[in-house]
Amino acid sequence: MKKEMTAPLTLIFMTQWMLLITQLCVGWHCTDCMNGSAIENFSCVIYNISLMNCTWQPGRDAPEDTQYFLYWQNPRYEDAMECELYIKDENGRNTGCMFQNVRIKPEKAYFLVNGSSKDALIQFYDEYIQLYEIEKLMPPSNITVNCDEIKNDCIIQWQQPQISHSNKDNCFKYEINIKYKEWANSHTFQRSNTRKKYLLKMRAAGSACFVSPAWGEWSAPVEFGNEEIISSSVWILLVVAIATFLVVIGTILFCKRTGCWKAAFPQIPEPKQVFRGLPDTNPKMMESKIQSITSENEEIILITDVVK
Question: Is 33 exposed, middle or buried (0-12, 13-18, 19+ CB in 10 A)?
């Protein structure tokens, strides 16, 4: 039973290889192929650990009906595969391909793009690519910052970027964007201002282990520290003092307007001037004085009546 299943698989594999070899041979010996019909600006990038995106531009002199097809092999001893998800331009021509579940291996991968047209024979394009060199690294994860308020320094820790072909810590170098430099899997720096907020970002690049030496994506910003210039206790006292002052000012203005200030603090009336000018209270003396005053000023009679 196993032999019966193995035979069709072997036949499919041989058919793929024969097709690929035929395409290569046609390309090598294609003296009648149209110059300038092969694709241009071919490039691939691996991202999110296992996704690969390859793009190209149609040949500058290729007929309008030219259609391109991508085959790749990773590595040499594995089966050649055609693209399963093409990217098309506005004219319906294949100008790219998306691959899933790509695994990076030490050997170079082989890529071939051929074309077909009713009007001419199309040149093919091929290239060997070291896959780890085209990988765009993910940023470090689980970034934490722990600060010592006594020593006034902070320890930054993180986890290495995830890649499909290695899990060693010494494969990477790091860059920390807080105007400080990178080292190892942790880093200590001194804060110049403990009352200031910091935003920290990190990214990684390969330093060994067949990891891309190009810098990868920046991580999301990590915020730490604070922006308090005055301590919270001082802020509370300041708010209470301002509130008390405003209440006192408001009370004084209200009492002046409504008159409650006079009701609360009434003034003691002074004695009238008439009693101060009468040192002698003898009735006969007062009668004689009143009579003399009456002759001079008739209006004082009213005062006399009041006194009597």
Answer: middle
Query: How deeply is 290 buried, as exposed, middle or buried, from its count of CB atoms within 10 A (0-12, 13-18, 19+)?
Result: middle
Answer whether 141's CB lies under 8 Å from 161's CB. yes
Per-10-residue mean pLDDT for the chain, 308 residues long? Answer: 42 46 49 87 94 95 94 84 93 94 90 93 94 93 86 86 80 82 50 68 89 92 69 72 84 72 63 54 55 48 39
The answer to whether the pTM exceeds 0.85 is no
DSSP state letters, 46-85: EETTTEEEEEEE--TT--TT-EEEEEEESSTTSPPEE-SS
Buried b (16+ CB within 10 A) or exposed e, 177-190: ebeeeeeeeebebe
